[in-house]
Design brief:
PyrdxlP-dep_Trfase_small; PyrdxlP-dep_Trfase_major; Aminotransferase class V domain-containing protein; Aspartate Aminotransferase, domain 2; seven-stranded mixed β-sheet
């Protein structure tokens, strides 16, 4: 007998105590409302009770005790802790379970947090065990769990569903990760600088378990440390700069730092501001790092023998997604006894990180922004580095938690590097979340991610490689991630659409969230846009806040700063979402310039359009713009840019008056009258 959806939902909720109705609906839809399959899975679930383990060892974690666990050294610590999540169950009722503390000797094996095989997603998230054998459903599940994916925003053209395409800047949260945090971590939350009460001990074990998991994911050895630190790679790089003591004049004079063209400001400014000698390695004709130039510089400084060589390079550009051959470059640097550091801020969510692929190709340090992993909002930066680098007597962030003792006159810092370099109360929840997102990445598998990334790159370039008006930055023939930066050219005006305007159009017309600007990679952007230093200095005068640094009568106009629009296609995005984004971008590349003629001072453009497809609606709006502009807008009222005549050639973007003139002239010549009928193309 067939049941209504409401009956099915109520029946499933009665079995699982799952009270979130919308989550139940989404879950049932994944199984095509086949309740019999779900009932079998739910009834086979055996809840597990967490057992806390304490040992003398610094390795800590949790394990789950089985029903025949004969441990006798247990004591109750709480009767009010929620039962940990079991498969497909996220209970929010008043049922509670008792958790036990198991004190064992250091000779007993400590089961690390998340210590099960990271090839499967079920070791931490048991309720997605069904996806262990098939990656595509797992990607769909991740996509369906992105927080906010079903939310809408109000725009001048009506309500639009949010479609996030700015993952390179920061990822979005995942429902199942937040459920894990809420049900497993937060009930036991306490500060980690004590292990003498159950909550502090459990929280410490979660955090240290996260550290251990990350080490395993990046193939770290006992020679490597993992340090949670501040805001993204920026904090990790600044931490290492402090550790290397480059602000000391003696150390600085004996050090040279090589950077690549790809670098984000975070991997330029911390080094530059110490005053150390910085050498920028240019690109070759393919748009990759020039190995010959690098080799010559390495040989020169190695043979001179006066300075320690540090190479700090980007594993993948956050502007173009172009990847660097990290193992070959690491090998080359070590052949000349240099240190090699890698900024994985843009690359880490998508590629394998191997700290020790071989002795000569080992990485001396890597910098990671875990907030860029899906599920990673609020996760900290991570510095993974060789212990040999930490010769500093005083920690970079000395303070609480870094000392054995402090008297009125003396201080003794702890010897453990990870402890001494994480001063103060850490971002505890973020550190635990960092381990979860690394685990999820490993569960999906780097091969799966990279294969999908390659397919998305190919799909994008198959459509836009030779596009007439959309110019993609960076080579299309080298290995790259699904990160794309572009400009849109308006041939009839011989100017570009401003990147901010493109960003707003994608938001208002389609709900697509992208980024505009230079993505904090100024020098690389100047290379990509083919702007020489002299021209760059002119643009800098328009942007600088210091009036004394401006040329003549140049006003401060931040719009003059060159830039681009950037988006990325996420590996877990559906083909439908990808096509929607690409269709929207192609529409902007073709018709976006027309919308520059519209402003808030004119009567609203009424469309009377009935369409559920924002792309089709945008096309219909664009077709109405010429007549609307001709009948309603006077270009003489448009305020021109306040730029001296001698600098008007530096205006690189179209302004409303340009577009209005173009539309009016074309309409007068071609569009003031339309034919009374048009043949049916379907016959």
């Amino acid at each position: 007998m067939a049941h209504s959806p409401d009956q099915t939902i109520e029946y499933f909720q009665s079995l699982t105590n799952w009270n979130d109705r919308q989550a139940v609906i989404e879950f049932l839809e994944m199984y095509e409302w086949d309740v019999s399959v779900l009932v079998e899975r739910v009834t086979n679930v055996k809840p597990k009770t967490p057992t806390l383990l304490r040992t003398i060892s610094t390795e800590v974690g949790i394990r789950y005790s089985s029903t025949n666990d004969n441990s006798t050294q247990q004591e109750a610590i709480s009767e009010n802790h929620h039962q940990l999540i079991s498969s497909f169950r996220n209970r929010n009722d008043s049922n509670h379970t008792t958790t036990t503390l198991n004190i064992e000797s250091s000779d007993d094996q400590v089961h690390q947090l998340f210590a099960s095989n990271t090839e499967t997603a079920s070791s931490i998230f048991p309720y997605i065990k069904q996806f262990d054998m098939s990656k595509q459903p797992l990607l769909q599940y991740i996509d369906s769990n992105v927080i906010g994916s079903n939310h809408r925003i109000n725009t001048p053209w009506g309500s639009r569903k949010i479609l996030y395409a700015d993952y390179t800047a920061s990822e979005r949260g995942l429902t199942f990760i937040e459920h894990f945090m809420m049900n497993n971590v937060l009930p036991y939350y306490a500060n980690t600088h004590s292990e003498n009460n159950a909550c502090a001990l459990q929280t410490t074990k979660y955090r240290e378990g996260s550290r251990t998991l990350i080490k395993r994911c990046v193939n770290a050895t006992n020679d490597d440390v993992v340090i949670f630190t501040g805001s993204g790679s920026t904090a990790a790089i600044n931490k290492l700069v402090d550790v290397l003591q480059l602000k000391d004049e003696t150390v600085r004079r004996r050090t040279v730092v090589f950077i690549s063209t790809f670098e984000h400001h975070s991997n330029i400014l911390p080094w530059r501001e110490t005053g150390v000698e910085v050498i920028r390695i240019p690109n070759n004709t393919q748009g990759l790092m020039d190995d010959n130039f690098l080799t010559n510089q390495l040989k020169k400084y190695h043979d001179e023998g006066e300075k320690r060589i540090i190479c700090t390079f980007n594993a993948a550009s956050n502007v173009t997604g172009i990847r660097t051959d990290v193992d070959n470059i690491s090998t080359l640097v070590h052949q000349y006894r240099g240190l090699i550091f890698w900024d994985y801020a843009a690359a880490a969510p998508y590629v394998k990180i191997d700290m020790n692929p071989s002795e000569i190709a080992a990485k001396d340090a890597v910098f990671i922004s875990t907030h860029k992993f899906v599920g990673g909002p609020a996760a900290p930066g991570i510095l993974i580095a060789k212990k040999k680098l930490f010769t500093n007597e005083v920690p970079g962030d000395c303070g609480g938690g870094t000392v054995n003792f402090v008297t009125r006159t003396q201080t003794e810092y702890v010897q453990d590097i990870e402890t001494r370099e994480e001063g103060g109360t850490p971002n505890i929840l973020g550190s635990i979340r960092a381990g979860l997102v690394f685990h999820l990445k490993e569960s999906v598998g780097c091969h799966t991610i990279e294969t999908r990334e390659d397919a998305l790159v190919e799909k994008f370039f198959a459509r836009f490689r030779n596009h007439r008006t959309l110019f993609v930055l960076g080579s299309s023939t080298v290995a790259r991630l699904g990160i794309f930066s572009f400009l849109i050219y308006v041939p009839s005006i011989q100017k570009y659409l401003h990147h901010n305007f493109i960003c707003v159009l994608l938001n208002d017309l389609f709900g697509i969230q992208v980024r505009s600007g230079c993505s904090c990679a100024g020098p690389y952007v100047l290379d990509l846009l083919n702007i020489n230093d002299e021209t760059a200095d002119i643009y800098a005068k328009f942007i600088t806040a210091n009036e004394n640094d401006r040329l003549g009568e140049i006003p401060r106009i931040e719009l003059m700063k060159p830039g681009f629009t950037r988006f990325n296609l996420s590996y877990f995005a559906s083909d439908k979402e990808v096509d929607y984004i690409l269709n929207a971008i192609e529409f902007i590349a073709t018709d976006g310039w027309k919308f520059l003629s519209l402003n808030s001072d004119t009567p609203p453009l009424t469309t009377n359009i009935c369409s559920d497809d924002p792309i089709e609606e945008a096309r219909l709006i664009a077709n109405k713009i010429p007549r609307y502009v001709y009948e309603n807008i006077c270009y003489l009222k448009d305020t021109p840019l306040n730029i001296p005549d001698e600098y008007k050639d530096f205006i690189w973007f179209a302004i409303p008056i340009d577009v209005i003139r173009k539309i009016i002239i074309d309409f007068e010549q071609n569009g003031s009258r339309t034919v009374p009928f048009r043949p049916n193309s379907d016959n």
